[in-house]
TrEMBL record:
This is Transcriptional regulator. SMART domains: HTH_ARSR. Keywords: DNA-binding, Transcription, Transcription regulation. It holds the Pfam family HTH_20. The keyword DNA-binding applies. The lineage of its organism: Bacteria, Pseudomonadati, Pseudomonadota, Alphaproteobacteria, Hyphomicrobiales. GO terms for molecular function: DNA binding; DNA-binding transcription factor activity. The keyword Lipoprotein does not apply. Residues 1-95 form the HTH arsR-type domain.
Length: 105
């Protein structure tokens, strides 16, 4: 994952409504939720939901699939895992330097 992509995804999740939508879809599992069901759970207007979903879809965090007349939204778990991995990949990578600096002084 590149810095720019991670930045866009984190920016999208930085909005409280989008974060709530995303967490709701993550909780729904691989079957996802129909837009109507998602709207009921979140309690926002359809146009507002559509706006926020577009942003999540554009960043790759959410996928949508049409099943007849129903639009199913799903958290895109590979993107979620990639973002979490990007944030954690270098965890404590410089820890020895920090420990060495704090023991020298």
């Amino acid at each position: 994952m590149k810095l720019e992509q991670a930045s866009r995804q984190l920016e999208a999740l930085g909005n409280p409504t989008r974060l709530q939508i995303y967490r709701t879809l993550v909780r729904a599992g691989h079957s996802g939720l129909a837009v109507g069901g998602l709207q009921e759970r979140i309690g926002i207007a359809a146009s507002t939901l559509s706006h926020h979903l577009k942003r999540l879809v554009d960043t790759g965090l959410v996928t949508q699939e049409r099943q007849a007349t129903t639009l199913i939204c799903r958290a895109h778990y590979p993107a979620m895992h990639a973002l979490i991995g990007y944030l954690a990949d270098e965890c404590c990578a410089d820890a020895e330097d920090v420990v060495a600096e704090s023991t020298v002084g």
